[in-house]
Write a structure and sequence with these properties.
The protein is of the alpha/beta class. Helix content is 42%, strand content 14%.
């Protein structure tokens, strides 16, 4: 059985002081929910501080982006070496990176490869825009992103399985930050019929069955349980609600097996 995972993506929010306050509110309650993997993804400036607050717990830490080179003249970027000093996870290919910063499937692929090389677990984001969804192109777009982002890669063995080497987050772009979530059954269908199908083609059925696939897009405390009840949804990548301690904790609680 796949262990549920809920990750909070704080995006470009919270100063160091504000991040300390938020993490301090979250950690005591999150520590008690041991049957769900919990991951906090603060902005880069707050990673060191949040890392110190998570020491001695089993709560994971993730960065929101990185470059694939280890070092060099890449002003404004962070390398996998820098991220791996503090984090276990890295978000790759988030729709906002694709929309605002030119992220494409080829760069996602290189970042995933770099994550594997540095023992980071990438959370690989895929999803279609509203226009693509309304044009009936969901399968085409999501399939292309899975194949483009993951093809040609050798999966490392993590905790005894290649299926633990990475995580996929299905985040329909039209549902992110809009309050308009996909239906649980609709999201589950994309994951089961498109994402897991493509993963099986790339890595085999066993890996496809083992990889955790999250849903992302206007996940809240009052709809999380509906998503988590679907058989192919293994948790959530949470945006705005992860900035509200009570809300985020309720979402994690909804994922308890």
């Amino acid at each position: 059985m796949r262990v549920p995972l809920v990750a909070g993506n704080w995006k470009m929010n919270k100063t160091i002081a504000e991040a300390r306050h938020l993490a301090s509110e979250l950690v005591p309650s999150l520590k008690a929910i041991s049957s769900v993997d919990r991951v906090l993804c603060p902005p880069f400036t707050a990673l060191l501080m949040v890392h110190s607050l998570l020491e001695g717990t089993d709560i994971g830490l993730g960065a929101q982006n990185m470059y694939w080179e280890e070092s060099g003249a890449y002003t404004g970027e962070e390398s996998p070496l820098m991220v791996a000093e503090l984090c276990q996870y890295i978000i790759v290919g988030h729709s906002e990176r694709r929309a605002y910063f030119g992220e494409v499937d080829a760069s996602v692929n290189r970042k995933v490869a770099a994550a594997f090389d540095h023992k980071l677990i990438p959370i690989v984001c895929v999803g279609e825009s509203l226009e693509e969804n309304e044009a009936g192109q969901t399968e085409e777009v999501v399939s292309r992103q899975i194949k483009g982002g993951l093809s040609g890669l050798e999966l490392p063995i993590v905790s005894g399985s290649k299926g633990n080497a990475f995580i996929v987050a299905y985040e329909p772009v039209w549902a992110i930050g809009t309050g308009r979530a996909a239906t649980p059954k609709g999201a589950n269908a994309v994951i089961a019929d498109v994402i897991r199908k493509e993963l099986a083609g790339l890595f085999g059925q066993n890996v496809s069955d083992e990889v955790r696939v999250l849903y992302g897009g206007s996940v809240k405390a009052d709809n999380a349980a509906e998503f988590f009840s679907e058989p192919d949804i293994d948790g959530a990548l949470v945006g705005g609600a992860s900035l509200k301690p009570d809300e985020f904790i309720k979402i994690v609680e909804a994922a308890v097996l």
